[in-house]
Amino acid sequence: MGTLAIVIGATGGIGSALVRVLDESGPYDRVVGLSRRTHPGLDLLDETSIQAAAKWIAGQGDDLRLVFDATGALTLGDRKPEKSLRELDPQALAESYAINAIGPALVMKHFLPLLPKDGKSVFATLSARVGSISDNNLGGWYGYRTSKAALNQLVRTASIELARRKPHAVCVALHPGTVRTPLTEGFAKSGLEVQAPEKAAERLLTVINGLTPTETGGYFDHMGERIEW
Predict the structure, then answer these.
(1) Are 178 and 13 in contact (CB under 8 A)?
(2) Between 25 and 135, whose confidence is greater?
(3) What letter does residue 126 receive in the DSSP assignment?
(4) Cis peptide bond prior to 81, omega within 30° of 0
(5) DSSP state of 225
(6) Is 144's pLDDT higher than 80?
(7) Residue 89: left if φ>0, alpha if ψ -120 to 50, beta else—which one?
(8) 68, 142, 186, 213: least CB-packed within 10 angstroms?
């Protein structure tokens, strides 16, 4: 039985880079990428597909040591992030929560039970620094900010339950920094470091490798620094 790493959102900018880096230099015997375009497919908006993908993974018989959820959406269709309350749209807010919070929560629901009882294992999901309530000094981006804040709380809550059953497991939210992907195109501010996806993937995996069970439920950036909630 070999060790297994899973990347969800494997056809996205960061997700595909994570798969490449793990394949080339990761400590895992096997790397599986899952997305709407893989087989089996996994659609964050369809719990049945998430459950089916988890069942397929369970049937592989491998030792699952990493589940990395690299999903998320800043913009939805032709909608841009809201600059003021006047721009709030209930459907857009619901869609943002569905993709950025509810979908990852369902991934935790079906994949956390697959982590082994003994030895270190990690579930990591991509959050964003703008999801920090205490760090919010600019306002705006209502849907993205609040859906990522909700994701952070879901991770924190799930980590507490997970620790009771699997005390060596780590469940964290990670901020990848600004990465050169279609998600950030047009939103990167001058003066920010814009990373290539492969560099971001390497940094995130370095953070994961250094985490211990005492840090489960935490919120960290791509350099390993803890972010305030």
Answers:
(1) no
(2) 135
(3) E
(4) no
(5) P
(6) yes
(7) beta
(8) 186
